[in-house]
Amino acid sequence: MAALSLGLSGVRKRAAARCSAVERKNLITVCRFSVKTLIDRSCFETVDDSSPEFTNFVSILEQILSHRLKGQLSWFGYESARSFWDYIRLACSKVPHSCIHSIESMENVRSSRAKGRAWIRVALMEKRLSEYISAGLRDIKTTRRFYEDGAIMLGEEAGLLADTLIGLNAIDFSFCLKGEGLDGSFPAVIDYTPYLKFIQTSDSISSDEEEMRTLGSSGSEASTPESNMAAALLCDQSSWFSKCKRVEQKYRVVLEQKGYLEELVRLREAQLAECVSQNKVLMQRFSDTELSHKLEKEQFEFIILELQDQLTVLKNHDLRSRQELTAHLTNQWPSPGTIDTNAVALDTLLYRKHTGQWEEKSFQSLEQLSVDMSLSQTSLDPAQAHSHTHSLEGKASLTHWHREGKEDTPSLRGLCGSLTSVGSFKSLTSLKSSECLASPTTEITSPGLTPS
């Protein structure tokens, strides 16, 4: 029993899937026929709301956009009917320069179905109906939210629908948006009569002719030759008439296909021309960008070379300054023997000043000692000897100043001690023999300084 129920459910599912597929295929096929009929009608007269071909096309398009459209749930869980305008309003809102807002603000159009019909007419006048449908199909999330599984808008037929509607861009539509066609109170009904014409095949025509001959020959044995001739002529006329009908039907089909292909070729040529113009603009931008990049690269290379030259000059200047400073610091100090003799004389002088023994004999012995020191410095140059003589004169003036009863400043003791200490001498010796100081390239003479 369970297996039987499962089998029945499977059969029902397959039957429902087949019915849905047949319904989708029929709607798409009828839509293609309707588009071709509109294109043929526009070649001879203007298409407006009163044209039966246009009314049939709008009904077919409404049926396609409303195929398996989900209802809207209310607060109490009831599902109410929904129009395809609710889907178009959300899915096509991102289309640039869309007519959605203008249709929403119409005063004479209030119901959702009437707004959807007004949108179809405005899109046809703008020649953008295929663009709106394609934009809605790209919004997959919104499309799945509004349609159930098996709907045309969720299948492969939707892409074919968008391509079919491109042919309507060749027609100049003109509608009145205040007419009776926008009334949403009556549903859209498709008229299948123009697409259900019976075409008799050649085999069927020949069989009918044979049947007519048989009936004519067996109808009366007393038939005259004139009646047989009339029957033959009638059969020939009917055969020629049927052949002309077949040729005319084929010609119409080929003419429709030719018009559709020509419109498709014009559309593709316009798209190709637009792509070529965009490609030229992009190539020009690319060349301008490449040229500016090349100029900036050359400027940066020139700046780098200039900075390298400046860095080399600064390095040479710094090296020369270091050498000059090393030579200056090395040559401005006297020999170590002179530093020891001057240190002993200054220590003796400070000691006698501290004990208060300032006598004439002490100053004379100090002057004699200074003279002996100056005579012993034979290695000094004339400039250093001249400065040493000035130091002796300074000492004589210092002696005269002390004789008049002037007192020394206590801060001189510490200064003299720093100049005559053994640590200062060691630091000077290490400074002179340091490996970090470069040997002077040029000998710089400076006046000799004595620690007086």
UniProtKB/TrEMBL annotation:
RUN domain: residues covered:
48-180
Q: Which SUPFAM superfamilies did the record assign?
A: RUN domain-like (SSF140741)
Q: Which UniProt keywords apply?
A: Coiled coil
User: Which domain of life, per UniProt?
Assistant: Eukaryota
| Record-linked InterPro entries | Run_dom, Run_dom_sf, RUN_RUNDC3B, RUNDC3A_B
Pfam families with a match to the protein in the record: RUN (PF02759)
Q: Which family does it belong to?
A: Belongs to the RUNDC3 family.
Q: What is this protein called?
A: RUN domain-containing protein 3B
Q: Which organism is this protein's natural source?
A: Clupea harengus (Atlantic herring)
